[in-house]
Design a protein that fits this description.
The chain is of the alpha/beta class. The protein folds into 2 domains: 276 residues, Acetylglutamate kinase-like (Carbamate kinase); 87 residues, PUA domain (Archaeosine Trna-guanine Transglycosylase, Chain: A, domain 4, Roll), CATH 2.30.130. The protein contains 11 helices and 15 strands. The strands form 3 sheets. It has an 8-stranded mixed beta sheet, with helices on both faces. A 5-stranded mixed beta sheet has the order 12-11-13-14-15. Strands 6-7 form a two-stranded antiparallel sheet. Strand 13 and strand 14 form a beta hairpin. It is globular and about 65 Å long.
Length: 409
């Protein structure tokens, strides 16, 4: 079925002379190269988190790029119709709102972003709902802040909500709640949010769409610069290659993307950084076609749900403990070990039973973190003592992988 429509989403419905001709397919399987099934049916694409950056779906003036959103929706619809579960994490609300209203000069920048987000989020979600609806896909919105990940109960509430949406064939669209996210409540950017969501939802893969093809070994466009197509645990440190510049309307940059990608890959999730302005980039990656992207190869290690939550909880830590060399050797050893009170030499800060607490050695190295079974007062009273209950049980303990093999004999 071929349908021609006018997309007129300008303020006050002003006429837009540019016409977007849209071909909606009533059966999206006809859009796949194989006729019925996508060629690549590997398990790593059973459930996918897809993050779309502001620079992908906005134009230079900050307004939404309706044509680009349409192409992305079409790509996701193909996956959806093939039974692949998708969670979409999208940016663009603040940028979309900025193009809709001129605020008073008295409005400070924080309040301005909140107003832009409030207006832009409605516009952004309306675009997605309209376009996904043309493919018979119901889309639902979920707005998150860092507070949503602070404690295990809120974390599980959000996970259960998204699971219920997926089970009922509702496509979850997640964005940061920029209307209330300020300062310490803000994610670094939606790259961080996409990492948290993909980890929380036990996704097989995370696809991060930017306006570049991936990670380069130099400045893109310069002589000798090449795209790095694969990064694994044995790859060199990427900091020497990556520019610290940020572009367009997004808060993050490639450093953030790489940091998140490596962390998520270490949890057993394949991560792809690719160019969202390329048509069919999502389905091309799933099919295994030779298109440009950087693949962060998933580790064979699969963490439990609790440890996944803890690995992203460093910013929520309430205090810290200092441990002796014996405790450090035990925690960094091959055998699974809890942190006992006898291995603690000092307690810093105030925390309650159940709070997340950082662990440092006597030289100040960050060993890890975990969920305390003591409050700070009781911990101070029992420093260095032999107690039956561990300070942090192994099941609620995450070790900083950089410190592995750091013990000198």
């Amino acid at each position: 079925m071929l349908v021609y429509i006018f997309i007129i989403w300008n303020n006050q419905f002003n006429y837009n002379p540019s016409v977007i001709y849209v071909k909606f397919a009533t059966n999206c399987s006809i859009l796949s190269n194989n006729g019925n099934k996508l060629k690549n049916s590997k398990p790593k694409f059973n459930r996918i988190a897809i993050k779309v950056g502001s620079n992908v779906i906005t134009q230079s003036d900050g307004s939404l790029n309706d044509g680009r959103i349409l192409r992305l929706v079409e790509d996701i619809a193909i996956l959806y119709k093939q039974g692949i579960e998708v969670v979409l994490i999208t940016s663009g609300a603040v940028a979309a709102g900025r193009s809709e209203i001129s605020l008073s000069k008295k409005t400070n920048i924080i309040a301005a972003k909140q107003v832009w987000a409030a207006i832009g989020q409605v516009k952004l979600m309306s675009s997605y709902q309209f376009l996904f609806g043309k493919y018979g896909i119901q889309a639902g919105q979920l707005l998150a802040t860092k507070e949503s990940f602070r404690d295990r109960r809120h974390y599980l509430n959000m996970k259960n909500c998204i699971l219920a949406m997926v089970e009922n064939k509702v496509l979850p669209i997640v964005n940061e709640n920029d209307t209330i996210s300020i300062n310490e409540l803000m994610f670094t950017d939606n790259d961080e949010l996409s990492g948290l969501i993909s980890s929380m939802m036990d996704c097989n893969s995370l696809i991060i769409l930017s306006n570049v093809d991936g990670v380069y070994n130099g400045l893109p466009g310069h002589t000798g610069t090449e795209l790095i197509d694969k990064i694994d645990n044995d790859s060199d440190d990427l900091d020497q290659y990556i520019s610290t510049l940020k572009s367009g309307f997004g808060r993050g940059g490639m450093i953030t993307k790489c940091s998140i990608a490596r962390k998520i890959a270490s949890q057993g999730i394949d991560v792809f950084i690719a160019n969202g302005t390329r048509d069919s980039i999502i389905t091309d990656i799933v099919r295994g076609k030779e298109v440009p992207y950087t693949h962060f190869v998933a580790s064979n290690k699969r963490e439990t749900g609790v440890k996944k939550w803890l690995s992203h909880s460093d910013t929520f830590a309430k205090g810290a403990v200092i441990i002796n060399r014996g405790a450090k050797e035990a925690l960094l050893g091959e055998k699974a070990t809890s942190l006992l009170m006898i291995g603690i030499t000092r307690v810093d800060g105030f925390f309650k039973n159940g709070d997340i607490v950082r662990i440092f050695d006597e030289e100040g190295n960050n060993i890890g973190l975990g969920k305390s079974q003591y409050d700070s007062k009781k911990a101070e009273q029992n420093v260095g003592e032999k107690q039956s209950k561990p300070f942090i049980h192994y099941d609620y303990l995450v070790i900083n992988e950089k410190n592995k093999n750091s013990i000198q004999v």
